[in-house]
Amino acid sequence: MNLYEAVYNRKSVRHYKMELLPQEFFRNLRKFELGLQPFVPELKYSVELFNAMDNEAKVKGLFHVKAPYYLVFFSETGEYAMTNAGYLMEQIVLYMASHGVGTCYQGMAKTVGLQGPAGMEALMVIAFGYADEKLYRESFRAKRLSLKELCVFKEDPTEETRLMMQAARLAPSAFNGQPWRFLIYQNRIHVFARKEPFFLWSREGRIEFDMGIMLFHITLAAEECWRDIEFARKENIASKEVKNNQYFLSIMLV
To answer: Which residue from 95, 93, 88, 89 is spatially nearest to 40, judged by alpha carbons?
Structure first.
């Protein structure tokens, strides 16, 4: 299973076997991390792993999941920092899923006893390990809004665009809120974020983080179609008032 296939099969795992993963998995994961594609290349970040069974650190917080391992993403602050975090962490999550390891984003978790690099903040925690439940699910079982509810098609979409939107539709998000909406032309996609629910906007940039996850799904689908895309912010779109939505960025098909 590759990363693109994992988009259609991965699910959040909330029950784990308290068992060790093989050292080979961690060696290969570190090699994979060297090739991560950032959304914002200028932002420095660090990925820290710890074994909770050996009390290397602890995780606390509302809704936190008990797991043998946790991954903590540290980053410099700046514009699109949370989006960059989601974009990068989803690459790791899909890699783990493709190698038989379960994951679950811990949006309200805090780590105790783990320090990140100087000048960086902990932006997100992932629980991971061998699943003590089903690791995968068929994509049709995912509780997601339809493309008709998520997209406004201003022109007839190409098959490539439809594949990108299907991948975006399956992206995980906090409380399965699916904050993204799309205005679609044949050669460009304008991405908007829902202004509601308000408590998610105020929850330490969680919606921006979710948008990063979704944008990586689109990137994967574009690569699957051998299609190049570019992200850009169009100020003429940003200046327009759109009811219940806030302009995020545009995706140009090149």
So the answer is: 88
